[in-house]
Amino acid sequence: MAEVILIGEHTDAITLRRSLRTMLIQASNARKIRTSPADINKHVLLLDEPPRHVRKHLEKEGLHQGASCIVLGSEKNQCRDRALPHIERSDGAWFDFTITVRKGKGALELLAYDFELRLPPGMGAPFLRFDLNLPAHRNEERELRCHLHPGSDDILVPAPLMRPAELLALLIDGVRPTAERKAARAPTLFEVSWFKDTLGLLSPSEAAPPAR
To answer: Are 37 and 25 in contact (CB under 8 A)?
Structure first.
């Protein structure tokens, strides 16, 4: 049996979804995010059955019984399309997430997650994504099942395992400029040159359509 992680404070996916919705609604009421409570209730969904490719992997590992997904919207936003459901912060950053869990004996098992925050221009990186791959994923052999993508899908950095509520709090409050800094730090010449060179490497045919 592949390794799984327990979420001790929740016994089922319904209570986990409810707690995440509550966190988001409280953040909306505090004006930390612009998304309304009505849209939060509408878009934070519980899928009784994981998507097909996830279910297939779980069946192979004997973990499909009792598995479900908590998602923002109905699909993973791999193209970073702003037209899809998301949560918008007060500073213009926006994020979404998917969580795969399984009802165990007395506690909920955390199988995988994907929390991605897209940042406004001038924030140093276009996005940050915190991933926990499914059990027995190939990244597990490299000790990278739990990792961070710092602005690139091709770069993985080891990251600590976090509970869904901890990650949601991080995306709402944690990844923001420090209060002491009144304006974004000016980029160095290295950064300016790096961005120019990167843009120069991308031809119109190679670049993906911009997210709306």
So the answer is: yes
CA distances to 2, 166, 179, 180 from 174, rounded to whole Å, are: 32, 10, 11, 15
Residue 208: the pLDDT is: 58
Read off the pLDDT of each residue in 110-135 and give the average, rounded to a whole number: 91
Q: Is 157 exposed, middle or buried (0-12, 13-18, 19+ CB in 10 A)?
A: exposed
Two tokens, residue 14: 């319904």
For residue 3, what are the contacts with CB-CB under 8 A and spacing of at least 6?
A: 135
In angstroms, what CA-CA distances link 47 with 74, 95, 130? 8, 19, 21
How far is Cα 199 from Cα 196, in angstroms, rounded to an integer?
5
211 domain residue, yes or no: no
pLDDT of 88 > 80? The answer is yes
Please report whether residue 42 resides in a domain.
Answer: yes
Tell me the pLDDT tens digit for each residue of 15-71.
999 999 999 999 999 999 999 999 999 999 999 888 888 889 888 888 888 899 999
Q: Provide the domain count of the chain.
A: 1
The verdict on residue 205 lying in a domain is: no
For residue 147, what are the β-bridge partners?
Answer: 131, 158
pLDDT for the residue 139: 73
pLDDT attached to residue 1:
42
Residue 80 belongs to domain spanning: 5-199
Structural domain includes residue 59: yes
CA distance 110 to 114: 12
Q: Alpha-carbon torsion 34, 38, 42, 44, what sign?
A: positive
